[in-house]
Amino acid sequence: IAVEGVPLYSNIPQNSQSAAYTTVLADAQKHILHPSADTTARTFTIDSNANVAYPIGTAITFINQASAGVMSMAQRA
User: Fold this and answer.
1) Which residues contact 14 (CB under 8 A, 6 or more apart)?
2) Continuous segment of H or E residues that includes residue 7
3) What would the DSSP string read from start to end of 11-72?
4) CA-based nearest residue to 39, from 18, 23, 21, 22
5) Is residue 7 exposed (0-12), middle (13-18) or buried (19+ Cβ within 10 Å)?
6) Could you give the strand order of the β-sheet that contains 61-64, starting from the edge strand earlier in sequence?
7) In degrees rounded to 5, what are phi and psi of residue 51?
8) I want to staple 69 with a disulfide (CB 3.0 to 4.6 A). Which of 28, 41, 43, 65 is the partner?
9) pTM, two decimal places
10) What confidence tens digit (pLDDT) does each residue in 28-70 have?
11) Dist CA 43 CA 65 (whole Å)
12) Which residues pair with 21 in a beta bridge?
């Protein structure tokens, strides 16, 4: 099922990242997981609209699993 081309899910697909990471268009409607196995602090960056034009209403969820390293968020200008 999709609304205006954006897929809707009954469960939220996962993108597990154990390194510094910058979001991409394929991350729309997903959750980004910083797993507990990665105890290193990581920075996850939401790319600028000039580089990645997410449709209005796009949701991305970030999860820092228990015992994972510190997760910082940044936004590329």
Assistant:
1) 30, 31, 33
2) strand 6-7
3) S--EEE-SS-EE--GGGTT-EEEE-TT--S-EEEEEPPTTT--PPTT---EEEE-TTPPPEE
4) 18
5) exposed
6) 14-16, 31-34, 61-64
7) -95, -40
8) 41
9) 0.82
10) 999 999 999 999 999 999 999 999 999 999 999 999 999 999 9
11) 14
12) 44
Identity of residue 73 = M
- Reference 42, options 77, 7, 73; nearest CA is 73
Residue range 4-32, pLDDT digits in tens = 887 777 789 999 999 999 999 999 999 99
Q: What is the pLDDT of residue 4?
A: 82
Whether residue 60 contacts residue 32, with contact meaning beta carbons closer than 8 Å, is answered with yes
